[in-house]
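Researcher: I'd like a structural prediction for the single chain below. Treat it as a standalone chain; there are no partners to consider.
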Amino acid sequence: MLIVEAIALGALSIPSAFATLGMVIGVICYVEIGLIAIYTSYIIGQVKLYITGSDICSLLFGGVSAIILRFLAIPSSFADIAIFGYIDFASIIIAIGITIIATGIGSANSIGGLETVNWSALPKEDVSFSEAFVAVSNIVFAYSFATCQFSFMDEMHTPEDFTKSIWTLGILEIVIYTITGATIYAFVGLDVKSPAFLSAGDVVSKVAFGVALPVIFISGSINTIVAGRLIHGRIYRNSVTRYVNTPKGWITWLSLISFITVLAWIIAEAIPFFSDLLGIASALFTSGFSFYWPPVMWFMLIRQGNWWSKDNLFLSIVNIFVFLFGLMVLMGGLYSTIIDIRANYATGNVRGAFSCSPV
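Model: Treating it as a single chain, here is the predicted structure.
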């Protein structure tokens, strides 16, 4: 479930992040931020065990997608939808594979071959602070799996085994993201697009998007269920309605996921930019739950003894670093994203809100 929730369309912004940061810094960022995400997820898991026991119009296509997503989110239990995870994971891996192969063949068959691809080990020339930080924010977004841990651990037979899940997912993400970003960037160069499917050519990109459709619906429905469970469980904290096994429970559950789906559709259609939308989400939400809140949890709930004691000093330093990194993503990411959005609007590189363009 963690793999399905985490490795989704966010992977498609990876090559463009490499184009901004360069091959060396791109690889370093994806590996190091991935390791930080594993560590903060470990803290969140510990806290959970601490507290457990208590030519179709794109606009129309988006609406149809929202309806499908809403129906897939009807099951209130992750166990009921987990079987679709195999389809989801296979579809995104195949779609990424199609893109890598297509861009590799296209570059090899071009005049001069792969040697003429305009990629660099260093950041691109004249890269601004905002451009670099938007790229970093997209990397942060790709490692945002910690948000769903509380909900997933509620259904685990043995919650103490959560470390197996986060290490499996974390290492898998680091490998997939680094290989995907590095290879597509090496095949396409600075002209790589976001989402990366668009770099594979008109026909192949449509094939890749078609193969990746399950990712949109299944991963989206899982996030809807996560949000619905968090809200529904707190509204009916002391009532049997929270288990969604009564008429009232089903009525309130269906109403809630319908509202969440409509809200998500409005956000998706009203905000006309992809990478900057990921940057905003990373800065406002992922930076907190995935980075600067876990160190606070460690200091307040897990740490035993003084922070400067021999047993705690190293972890105290690590947690302070992670906390500062999270704050940097929050402030720097939000500032950079706003600057980038203004620049895109000024140059006319943004479609209109609720615009009806061909799919």
